[in-house]
Predict the 3D structure of the following.
Amino acid sequence: MFDAKIPAGPLNSKWEDYKGHCKLVNPANKRNLEVIIIGTGLAGASAAASLGELGYKVKAFCFQDSPRRAHSIAAQGGINAAKNYQNDGDSVFRLFYDTVKGGDYRAREANVHRLAEVSGNIIDQCVAQGVPFAREYGGLLSNRSFGGTQVQRTFYAAGQTGQQLLLGAYSALERQVALGNVKMYNRHEMLDIVKIDGKARGIIARDLITGELERHFGHAVLICSGGYGNVFFLSTNAMGSNVTAAWKATKNGAYFANPCFTQIHPTCIPVSGDHQSKLTLMSESLRNDGRIWVPKKQNDTRKASDIPEEERDYYLERRYPAFGNLVPRDVASRAAKERCDAGYGVGTSKQAVYLDFAAAIERYGNIEVGKRQMTNVSKEDIIKLGKEVVAEKYGNLFDMYAKITGENPYELPMRIYPAVHYTMGGLWVDYELGTTVPGLYSLGEANFSDHGANRLGASALMQGLADGYFVIPYTVGNYLADEIRTKAIPTDHPAFVEAENKVKETINKFMTIKGSKSVDFFHKKLGKIMWDKCGMARNEKGLKEAIEEIKALRAEFWKEVRVPGSADEFNPELEKAGRVADFLELGELMCIDALNRRESCGGHFREESQTDEGEAQRDDVNFSYVAAWEYKGDGQYELHKEPLEFVECKPTQRSYK
């Protein structure tokens, strides 16, 4: 049995006990230890900054031209923390409980509790870095609500929280670069892990500008490369987001956990046509004030403004009165799909629902009238004042919607529909964030550990920064304390040569196939299979079909793909080819995992397992485990089960009614 290394003792003292007893590395020895970090989003940048500040020699790699381009900037809505500034009943325990419940009881209690414990420290750290969080009139940091909670614990910086947090982490990272503690490798992509005597000892990276392959040694390797939502082709992820780093780790012995747990975000701009290469997320923070509805009449073609209030179905408020529009993402997504499938969808595609700010604008306008002690105010002036408040809170999001759709969301309701967003699955890690390969760690969205089957909104930023700033400095030190006698291994070691030759062989294969179809042709085909048969709903028949279709598509890919240009130059098509090859393998594993998990939980909805009311129905007797898959060769995987034990959060049927 693989060991999750969860410390003994009560849940609320595990992390303190761990920190008090883990091994330490003295400052002089840290200078001789090298750490490689793959990815410089929130998890990678915060880890690089923290380990650099501790004195380790850090090499950080990103495929973008700057760490500031990392996809973390797209997380607009906010970051959770149990500060209880509102005095509305929040606590470390309540954040922990909401996260475990929101994840449909498929997360590891110990990891989630640690996340809740350090959440407050994250806010203090970011404020110290100058992150411009929104503040109340009196100067205290402001909070708003997010899905799956009944308290206000989400800290935010207008509608660009991820960007501001990343700039904070980036500034801390660049300080360490200037001091010489961190060496940045921009426009580099990791293409393989190098293992020596069973331990991760380095990587093979490709310089994306020159095409040159490089060997890099490290006493430990940290994978902080984000999620794999782009396996669906259309997702809210940046087009460059991929699974390659995590997948290379998997093919080198790291288990991949819960790959079928994909988050579908309910608040995205609907697909407009075949020309699209990605989808745009409208932040969940909009559900804080926006009301979601569809017409009560099927196939209603009237404009939203022509549909009177009594003919509107505010279906989330109707079905889930306790949480209303702030139910968790999986619940809101399935509810939108159900309404559209039943013929109540809006817009030309009928695959959309309305997100309406009219009531919020009027409410805020009336509040402003009261604050300013105005009298005899016209409805138009109330609306004008309300729009100003909404613009202050969400202005950049409204501007983005207007630019993309050509519609004014202050005047017309937004049209939204669910889309692939975040992936809860990822590399299996123990309590120390270590994979099943010694010396190989995984942080942030690239690991599986904290969100179960469904991530609550505003928790991704929290996990990335918790792992980088507050967890990995202790846990990687516990491992490196035993490595102080290991000298830097020269990169002419046979293991480096072998790994580089393997990468060269793959690249050469891409360049010599000279087929007739583009990389995007295969990526789009894969995405359609995944969305149709392993998307918002899955069933046994569809998943079995998908597995066979993906196998056939992969065989066709290796015969028919065409990669233009050459390998020893800047070649984006070659980059894409490698990533899509990995997606074709991962997609099959996702379907295998979804087929194996014969229950519905969180973002994984098996049609065979639902309540009479169409809600997800878990099977705790048979599936209360983490599914960790070991790569055994092309299309071959062995399932390892990590049983999940719930001491503080006893599993119950989730209800938001």
